[in-house]
Amino acid sequence: MKKKNLLYIVCALAMASFCSCDDFLDKDPQDKQTNDTYWQTETSLRTYAQDFYSSFFKGYGTDYTVFAGYFSGDDYTDDFINLNNANTNGAGYIYFPTSSTTDWNSRTATWSDYYGIVYKANAMLEKIPGMNISDEAKNHWAGIARYFRAMAYSTLAKYYGGVPFYDQVTDPADQALYKDRDSYPYIAQKIQEDFQYALDNVRPDDTKRQVNKYVVGAYMSRELLYHATWLKYHGTTVGPTSEKVADADIKALLQGAINGAEAVMNSGIYSIGNTYNALFTTDDLANNPEVIWYREYTSGVQCNSLMSYNGPEDQTQGGVTQDVIETYLCSDGLPIGQSPLYQGKQDPSIQKSFQERDPRLYQTIADSLRIMSAMGTNYTEGTSPTGYPTKKFLNDEWWAAGSPYCTGILSPVDAPCIRYAEVLLNYVEARYEIAQVGGNAFTQSDLDKSINEIRGRQLTKWGDTEAKTMPKVQLNGGSLSVNGVVINDPARDVDVNPVLWEIRRERRIELIMEGRRGEDLRRWAKFEYLNSEDASGHPTMPFLGAYVNMADYPGISATDESGKRVLFLFDPENPSNTDANKGYIYYLREKGLRTFKKGDLNSERNYLRAIPAAQLTIYENKNKVLTQNPGW
Asked: How far is residue 79 from each of residues 73, 280, 434, 511, 517, measured CA to CA in Å?
């Protein structure tokens, strides 16, 4: 993590006077470690393994970019309009890539970097058997190596699907190195085998800030759920050549996800606390029972800038969408389209629509309108292009006190890389999905262990003193109910079972802006949720912000000093009016920004990245073939 263990090499004095020249040439160098002399102790293994950590567990990052998956870092979602390079086709946060050599398809670092990790893990596994350490230590460190190898292959599979699999060190001159890709189901099986070995052998506690059994289990639940559901909803690849994956293979991967989750759940170590915002705004997560693994930041050593984007600055990298705001349930546990408590039907303004809602909403989004470029000059405190400034990553006490932690790259807030609530959500989704492919029936117990556990949090709305919880859900045939009322969301995707819809909703709300939504849409094969326009050519809620009635805000002008309009609103009642004085904030008005057509290969190909052109060229130069992904 932030303080890497460094390898210190003690230089021995070479006593050449005691050796003949020939003897000296036959010996290993005495002033430095070699590959043969290095592998001696657990300290050697621990030092070697530290280099794996920086490739994962990136937390909030260390600069002003995309925060390693948090806030604006979760690209291609319906939760957040990411404006980073939005007016170009360079970053790909708004547009889908147009070819195999543009946007993220042109980047070779993912391929080369993660295969570097595979090589490093294989080298470690090759040396462990010959070391003079206990069998328990050998098994533990082999588990660590296999855990990181699983994480590397999991990343590669998420990006590319099937990839060449290597489980031993291969000489660069060996032609076997230039093998074609193994299938995605085969790679997923190998990932599961590595995770299971690590779960069975990595120590429950191996000193502070070192991967342990429960870190393995947590990530095992995340990664295997991804691959199981991707293969279920896509098949072996994308496009017409994709083949259905057998239910038995899907079931095995889902069981792996459940095994990982249950290792954490049954440990008795972790629990859901009565905090939400504090999980993301605290400078020491070491003793938080909900945090399984975190990245540590320390003032004067290494900090991050995420809090500054949630406090004094315009949130220029993007903003939360109207679509996700409408996903939050009312306080009675019912969707806004069903609940009698929802007060935003006629007037969906923040003042009305934020009343009687899931308390996580108040600890995630500011409950007042703050529009970037329409409330004075730029860098007005905490304004957003969608009018919904986020508070999930802002420490309110520090902000009120004027703490420098809320400015620049000075935040010492630790980042929760994976937390208990996600494990519970991984578990409940895997349990529902496995019941559909031959596993044990989904039961009320599964809900009580997961969603209802999370809903037991007692959270307080900003400015209030009374803590509230969300109603627990009950299994009611093929649906869920709260307090005897069957949940019947009029906004439900009709292709998604009502129970699964609510499981996915809970995941979306709990994990908003934590880097999970983009992956979820990818594995569920639901990129159509990302379209910028509907069938009539009108903007969709994932591309709209808060509802504004200009009459309610006499201090806000829709034009700047020169008379140029800077605030555009989309009025569903009068969609052709480009000068509307009421409606949803319409920040990106270009037509055809993002269009996905289900079943069309030019769209479906975006579920996988193109194999980097540089890798294809390397194979061609060796008279070998590396198969490209469909559509690219």
From this structure: 12, 18, 27, 11, 8
